[in-house]
């Protein structure tokens, strides 16, 4: 009888689509709307660029589509398991087969801007098929739809597999290592390709990009009619198999009891250390770092990225980054730890109910982070400097290491209490163990803020090293100690004065402020401009400006991928200065335009 009350497949899919659109419509407020508009605008530019590749450079179309496919694979992993507005757990009590629920959830997954933008990019297939006549256009249209469904389905299956198998520390660390390696390959994957020689890789790369699911459409367009039909039919069969596999994985996920942490082991638990104050908090935090799968995965991502990035550059005999592997790990680990209180959920009430516990809580979290990150970063730095043979790097490593450690320990607790992103309580998380339930966009923005703020705390040490290399070591130790102590003091003072506000924020979310202007109140062109400047301002400022400036100062001749170093010497310094100025102007625009909006609004209201 219950099955008779369950809507049919078409009606259930329609309900999922309507729920997904309603959730999206009701969440588009403030900066979330700005981020969505800017992201869609940028995605449309990339999609139009993909169509342009099909027209002007058709030989590179399979590679371009492979980049879109990699975004579907690694994007959800990088943002903590993907945006699951409609969780399978919500529909576990429906009297319907897992396959029907999976098909309905798949329909809901297409109700959003990302699949629509990807479909526009895949229109490059019929454009490419025009070279082969009307039949090629028809095959391209069918291939565009099947390729989109295949990409979405593979993305969902990969995330479901990770969520199913990440049930231990080893698997969480493995996912983190894969993620960190993928990020490193995205930034410096060109190095091993250059080392192997482009001419040697042309043949197998053309085959490889067509073997990927993103290249099946191109292969069908280029094939004869019987083979093209066979490829499309096989693609439809793969979609059916992926849907069946996803249904099984979703059913396994719903009945799984794991909620993002390591299950308690059997036997007598280890006694808690007989101590109090910051040491007790540090002991608790160390256990949280050891048991929380999200923290393990993020930490593994940080260290794997720091290790793989210099190794990729070694393939082209560039050893300059090897001594700084530990420093990179510190910055990345700080970026992944910036939402400490948000990741704990409403557990903050335990601290607030204990008189005078705010200081011990902040200091204990700092101590635990230093014990987790510090020894590994020190070992990486010392080993990297010894192995690389770059003796000039010793003052830089020894000076920047304590400065970044202290600055990171201070920045993460300060932002944790000033820029908290509400998350789900660990025991209430869904079946995806890599998702904290927090706003992925806000957490990503917070991580970017840390990536800029932590290196800034080492600027005094950098200046001292440029004046006197070994005086910078003492400066680094002093600035690191002051950063950890001073920023930590500000953090626990704020926690004492605004702890209740933070608890309300975690419990109920941000309160609506109708009269306060936000970036979403800007005209659409300024909204897009602010988002683009925040997203890409670091490109001219750091990798094309500050880094080549440092290389020029130290006489490093390898140009790598820095534009200025590929130019004649007379143009190098002007281009470096231009890039730094461009980056600063982009960040200035992104900061001053919203400030101007706020000031004009306050004048109008008065």
From TrEMBL:
The chain crosses the membrane at residues 34-57, 63-80, 101-125, 137-165, 172-191, 225-249, 296-316, 322-343, 367-387, 393-421, 446-467, 473-492, 528-551, 571-592. Keywords: Membrane, Transmembrane, Transmembrane helix. The keyword Transcription regulation does not apply. The keyword Amino-acid biosynthesis does not apply. It comes from the Bacteria. This is ABC-2 type transport system permease protein. The lineage of its organism: Bacteria, Bacillati, Actinomycetota, Actinomycetes, Streptosporangiales.
């Amino acid at each position: 009888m219950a099955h008779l009350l369950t809507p049919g497949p078409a009606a259930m899919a329609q309900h999922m689509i309507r729920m997904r659109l309603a959730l999206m419509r009701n969440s588009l407020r403030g900066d979330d709307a700005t981020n969505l508009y800017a992201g869609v605008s940028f995605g449309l530019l990339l999609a139009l660029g993909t169509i342009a590749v099909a027209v002007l450079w058709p030989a590179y179309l399979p590679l371009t589509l492979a980049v879109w496919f990699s975004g579907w694979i690694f994007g959800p992993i990088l943002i903590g398991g993907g945006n699951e507005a409609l969780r399978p757990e919500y529909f576990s009590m429906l009297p319907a087969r897992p396959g029907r629920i999976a098909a309905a959830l798949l329909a809901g997954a297409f109700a959003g801007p990302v699949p629509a933008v990807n479909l526009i990019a895949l229109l490059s297939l019929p454009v490419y098929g025009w070279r082969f006549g009307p039949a090629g256009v028809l095959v391209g249209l069918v291939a565009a739809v099947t390729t989109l469904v295949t990409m979405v389905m593979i993305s969902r299956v990969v995330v479901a597999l990770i969520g199913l198998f990440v049930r231990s520390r080893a698997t969480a660390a493995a996912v983190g290592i894969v993620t960190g390696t993928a990020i490193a390959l995205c930034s410096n994957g060109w190095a091993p390709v250059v080392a192997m020689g482009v001419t040697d890789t042309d043949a197998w790369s053309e085959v490889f990009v067509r073997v990927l699911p993103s290249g099946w459409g191109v292969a069908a367009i280029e094939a004869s009619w019987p083979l093209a039909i066979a490829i499309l039919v096989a693609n439809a069969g793969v979609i059916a198999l992926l849907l069946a596999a996803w249904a099984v994985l979703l059913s396994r996920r719903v009945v799984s009891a794991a909620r993002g942490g390591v299950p308690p082991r059997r036997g007598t638990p280890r006694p808690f250390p007989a101590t109090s104050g910051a040491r007790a908090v540090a002991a608790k935090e160390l256990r949280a770092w050891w048991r929380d799968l999200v923290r393990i995965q993020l930490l593994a991502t940080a260290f794997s990225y720091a290790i793989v990035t210099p190794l990729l550059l070694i393939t082209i005999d560039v050893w300059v980054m090897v001594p700084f592997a530990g420093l990179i790990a510190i910055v990345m680990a700080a970026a992944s730890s910036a939402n400490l209180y948000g990741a704990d959920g409403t557990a903050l009430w335990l601290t607030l109910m204990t008189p005078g516990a705010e200081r011990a809580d902040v200091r204990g979290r700092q101590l635990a982070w230093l014990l987790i990150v510090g020894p590994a970063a020190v070992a990486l730095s010392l080993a990297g400097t010894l192995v690389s043979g770059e003796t000039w790097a010793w003052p830089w490593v020894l000076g920047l290491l304590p400065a970044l450690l202290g600055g990171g320990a201070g920045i993460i607790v300060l932002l944790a209490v000033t820029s908290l992103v509400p998350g789900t309580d660990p025991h209430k998380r869904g079946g995806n163990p890599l998702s904290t339930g927090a706003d992925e966009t806000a957490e990503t923005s917070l991580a970017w803020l840390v990536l800029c703020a932590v290196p800034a705390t080492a600027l005094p040490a950098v200046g001292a090293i440029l004046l006197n290399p070994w005086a910078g070591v003492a400066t680094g130790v002093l600035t690191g100690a002051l950063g950890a102590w001073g920023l930590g003091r500000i953090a626990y003072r704020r926690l004492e004065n605004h702890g209740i506000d933070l608890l309300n924020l975690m419990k109920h979310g941000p309160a609506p402020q109708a009269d306060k202007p936000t970036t979403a109140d800007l005209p659409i062109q300024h909204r897009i401009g602010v988002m683009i400047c925040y997203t890409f301002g670091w490109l001219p400022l750091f990798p094309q400006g500050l880094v080549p400036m440092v290389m020029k100062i130290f006489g490093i001749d390898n140009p790598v991928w820095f534009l200025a170093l590929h130019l004649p010497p007379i143009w190098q310094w002007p281009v470096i200065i231009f890039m730094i100025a461009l980056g600063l102007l982009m960040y200035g625009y992104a900061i001053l335009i919203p400030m101007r909006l706020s000031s004009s609004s306050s004048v109008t209201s008065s």
